[in-house]
Amino acid sequence: MLELLINLLGTRFLLFALHFEGEGKFPKPLTAAEERRCFERLSAGDRAARDELISHNLRLVAHIVKKYTASGADSDDLISIGTIGLIKAVETYDHTKGNRFASYGARCVENEILMHLRSAKKQAAEIRFDEPVDVDKNGNCLTLMDITPDEGMSVEESCVLRIQLDRLAEKLGTLDERERQIIVLRYGLGDSPPIAQREVAERLGISRSYVSRLEKKALETLRREME
Fold this sequence. Notes:
Layout: H1 2-9, H2 32-43, H3 47-55, H4 58-68, H5 75-92, H6 101-124, E1 132-135, E2 141-143, H7 144-147, H8 155-171, H9 177-187, H10 197-204, H11 208-226
Antiparallel strand pairs: 1-2
Helix pairs in contact: 2-3, 4-5, 4-6, 5-6, 9-11, 10-11
């Protein structure tokens, strides 16, 4: 979830990634001609075209998430993860091949969700990485997280992620207390695992829709600060 948060803050498109609240209102799908023009604009460096392509394909994420809500995974998390898959699809799609984007985008969204579900299942069966396993020369506790390299990451990538997380921790101070609580609980920035919006709402004694609004505002603030 920490890497997901970094990904969300790294994109200017937050509308759906910050949790669609069930109003059922999506932008209409683009026509083939409109879609082609958007990808041509994106290829020319128009970042607004990227956001337009994402917003007009949000229903793909909602449709695919419905398939996995019975798996026990929280729909809020699946929406965020699926949206990251959609963003990646828009950024890697080759429009010159002449095929419509929907099929490619759906595969990317579903792959992102499946990777998340497999990772969650694997982690549930593993030992905790934050358990002390040794001490360093100064007597400080070392955990598995401290001594194990990140799987699939180079040393350089791991260092960059750690720097980003340090910056994120610093920028949390720009939020008010309630916004900071919500971000910490939602993305597991403290000692506890990340939790769903409804659990945050119950813990703080506020409505889920209010949690969603505050989370959007907080992430937008953090994104500006990170930039």
